[in-house]
Amino acid sequence: MDWLRRVMNGRYGVDQLSIALLIISVILTIVGIFPNTHFLSTLSLIPLFICYFRTFSRNIRKRYDENQKFLSFWNPIRNTFRKKVERSKDKTHRYYKCPKCGKTVRVPKGKGKICITCPICKEEFIRKS
Ligand SMILES: [Zn+2]
Questions:
Q1: Residues within 5 A (CB) of ion ligand 1
Q2: Beta bridge pairs of residue 65
Q3: Are residues 49 and 73 in the same domain?
Q4: 120 alpha carbon to ligand 1 midpoint, in Å?
Q5: Whole-prediction pTM value?
């Protein structure tokens, strides 16, 4: 592994954006197996090339900035998905969006019809819990 350390010395390495590019490339390759989608296999080389370029790049500052831009776009998507998974596992609460301000309100499950007061805008709405 010493040779790898020597090759990677001063180079940027792998980050979340590179992994995302690699996943995009793999998806394009798999979809490109089907008939009439062969151009996608060729297209899959583009994110793969960018991934390699970024990993072996010596311009660490620029690659870091690119990754930060990617994360500022990706993290909200990931967090929304994580919240949905957490809420689907929550057996003791229900989640409602305030009709006025859109804030998510958590209420205990199994209390019948209840009047919910939004903690942000004080809007009241009735839902089945
Ligand atoms: Zn509200």
A1: 98, 100-101, 103, 118, 120-121, 123
A2: none
A3: yes
A4: 5
A5: 0.71
